[in-house]
Write a sequence for this structure.
């Protein structure tokens, strides 16, 4: 029998047969390799990860400790959206808005970047009165969005702000610290008394379902928004979060949102959270309270401080005005329905 482990010229029927054997062997090897690679791809793509690849605590639960950040445009708009001005006014052509006066000097930075939505079905089921309130919020974004005044962002908005946050995971508590506004929240994994008041970040109680951390969040104020597009809620907001490991460095985040005062049914958002892998990853101070003092209170000065800015092609004059009556004290807009 001819030895097919080596090739000896000249070409004969035996050597041709050896070539065929080698081709078949290579095809089998390639098939095995591709099958293994496909299995790995499918398992990671659909959230199934070998247990050995997961970072775990001494209790055997996934260890989410680290610095994380979302990579979405959800803070601009939870739903799918095209590029649009932050503040718009009619342009030269019909249905083609341009940057409005407050942001015209910003150029491309004054535009909301386009993005895919994170809402299941891409629909937020507002009640009729609330849909109208949402439109009003969007039209008055500069006046009403609590993010612009450095109020704590609430849940779930804190999870997809364009800033990192840190998770410190213990046995009975999970601490989350956010770079924006120094916001914090504690997820209680043990029995705790009901929260006695309302809070911007709500009250979080969690438990494990297999490798998924499930968090029930309640006791919200009505003063936080979901995004910069005017999406809002009332003090009846109830959020159920699910944190499921995709890999050591990625988490599938899901939040089911219900609010009987504002929405007709529960709805859901989902997106990945990614671990910051830089060797020097850390939270920086973004103490924005003092940064917005002039924005919030500048209209109350006896002598106006910010009056004029001038660039090469644009000059901007600022006129502050004091709202009439009790409106002068308004800082936030409640998401609750108007009392009848």
């Amino acid at each position: 029998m001819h030895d097919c482990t080596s090739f000896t010229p000249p070409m004969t029927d035996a050597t041709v047969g050896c070539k065929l054997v080698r081709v078949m062997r290579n095809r089998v090897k390639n098939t095995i390799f591709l099958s293994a690679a496909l299995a790995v791809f499918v398992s990671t793509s659909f959230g199934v990860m070998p247990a050995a690849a997961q970072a775990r605590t001494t209790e055997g639960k996934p260890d989410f400790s680290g610095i994380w950040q979302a990579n979405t445009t959800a803070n601009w708009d939870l739903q799918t959206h095209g590029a649009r001005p932050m503040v718009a006014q009619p342009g030269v052509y019909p249905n083609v808005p341009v940057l409005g006066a407050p942001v015209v000097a910003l150029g491309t930075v004054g535009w909301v970047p386009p993005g895919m939505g994170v809402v299941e079905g891409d629909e937020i089921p507002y009640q009729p009165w609330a849909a109208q309130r949402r439109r009003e919020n969007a039209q008055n974004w500069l006046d009403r969005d609590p993010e612009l005044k450095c109020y704590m962002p609430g849940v779930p908005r804190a999870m997809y702000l364009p800033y990192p946050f840190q998770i410190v995971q213990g046995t009975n508590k999970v601490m989350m610290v956010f770079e924006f506004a120094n916001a914090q929240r504690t997820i209680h994994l043990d029995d705790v008394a009901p929260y006695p008041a309302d809070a911007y970040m709500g009250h979080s109680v969690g438990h494990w379902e297999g490798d998924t951390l499930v968090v029930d969040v309640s006791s919200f104020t009505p003063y936080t928004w979901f995004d910069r597009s005017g999406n809002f809620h009332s003090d009846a907001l109830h959020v159920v979060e699910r944190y499921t490991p995709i890999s050591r460095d990625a988490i599938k985040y899901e939040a089911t949102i219900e609010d009987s005062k504002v929405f007709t049914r529960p709805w859901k958002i989902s997106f990945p959270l990614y671990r910051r892998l830089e060797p020097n990853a850390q939270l920086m101070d973004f103490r924005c309270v003092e940064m917005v003092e002039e924005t919030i209170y500048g209209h109350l000065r006896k002598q106006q401080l910010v009056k004029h800015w001038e660039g090469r092609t644009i000059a901007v004059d600022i006129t502050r005005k004091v709202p009439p009556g009790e409106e002068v004290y308004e800082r936030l807009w409640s998401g609750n329905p108007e009392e009848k």
The chain is about 15% helix and 25% strand. Residues 13-45 form the longest helix (33 residues). Confidence is low (pLDDT under 50) at residues 5-11, 13-17, 34-46.
